Amino acid sequence: MRFLYACFVIVLCALIFCEYVADFVVLQKCKWPEIKRKKYVDDPLRAMILADPHLLGPHRGHWLDKLYREWHMTRAFQAASRLFQPDVVFVLGDLFDEGDMVSDKQFQEYVWRYLKMFHLPPGIPLISVAGNHDVGFHYKMHPFFMSRFESYLNNSSVNLYTIKQIHFVVINSMAMEGDGCMFCTQAEDQLKNISRTLHCMKYPLEAECARTRRHPYSQPILLQHFPTYRISDTMCEEHDAPYIEAFRERFHVLSKDATDMLGELLKPRLAFAGHSHHFCHSVNRLGIDEYTVASFSWRNKVNPSFMLATITPDDYVVSKCKMLPQQFVYNSYLSAGILCLIVIGFQLRKCIQRRRQSSAVDHRKVN
């Protein structure tokens, strides 16, 4: 019975380590990046940025896949939020895998699961960006999908958030088609309003800005689901895509025209996006740093990651934080299984030796 007890202890230790401890061990290697310039460093904004969790819905995927991978997403996020204690968390679209395929009741359950998985302490905002799996690609966008996403997750086509004097512009990428549709026209109007608001922050003494609520001006940071225009990840200074794929405008990335419009209206200093499921750091078409954030889910990427950004009104520094790889967990359980087999084999060998010795003694007694 001792070998059964030993196997139980080995499996239990592997289970506790992989399911409750390993995320903390891996994520402790990450640190908030530090701004070296002295101005504003007393109270910088610390933002955690992730993308594409793709929570499974009722139609796709096996229930075991949903249960296990979403369990690990929950453990990873809770470990990260406890270790890093961010000021704000951004999720850059595709919160759901079937957001544009489910009924309103199923969407409510989706949102409940999502908010439970990505739960944060009071006072830390969770800002969720719309992705094509949440409200559909441009051709599929419908007021029903848009209104319920806005209703449940408090995010419209374009939003301006100001946190610690840092301005973030959050955009629905699918409304950047520029074809005059209802959603595109609404998004462009909202962009122009935000552009005027930022202008008045910069030039508060102008007559047209007299009644505008004033925050100190700093160049905004752009957050959306689609990356700005690029031909492929060959334009990345760093990337982790397993192969290079040519990108299509309005499908994989924003169009050139939409990218240029954002640059003209907002004049951002930094951009973040998701959608490709792979990490990329590039200097984009607007001449600014853009980070495409890898998927947060093992279902899309076996070595997921997210971004940590330390930001002040005049500076920023960004680092990539690697999460627990899927293969590490599989290897840990495989190692535990092999160790159990070794223990069992050792015990069986001892039992066989004892039987042989017992048989030898009995044979001598008979003789």
Give a description of the structure.
- The structure is a single chain.
- This protein is an alpha/beta fold.
- The chain folds into 2 domains: 1-30 and 330-360; 31-324, Metallo-dependent phosphatases (Purple Acid Phosphatase, chain A, domain 2, 4-Layer Sandwich), CATH 3.60.21.10.
- It contains 8 helices and 12 strands.
- It has helices spanning 2-27, 63-84, 104-117, 132-135, 143-153, 182-202, 256-266, 326-366; strands spanning 45-50, 88-91, 126-128, 158-163, 166-171, 221-224, 238-239, 270-273, 280-283, 289-292, 305-312, 315-322.
- A 7-stranded mixed β-sheet has the order 4-5-6-8-10-9-7, covered by helices on one side. It has a 5-stranded mixed β-sheet with strand order 3-2-1-11-12, with no helix packed on it.
- A hairpin with a 2-residue loop joins strand 4 and strand 5.
- Helix 1 packs across helix 2 (63-84) and helix 1 (2-27) runs antiparallel to helix 8.
- The longest helix is centred in the C-terminal third of the chain and has 41 residues, at 326-366.
- It is elongated, with a radius of gyration of 26 Å.
- The chain starts with a helix and ends with a helix.
- The mean pLDDT is 90.
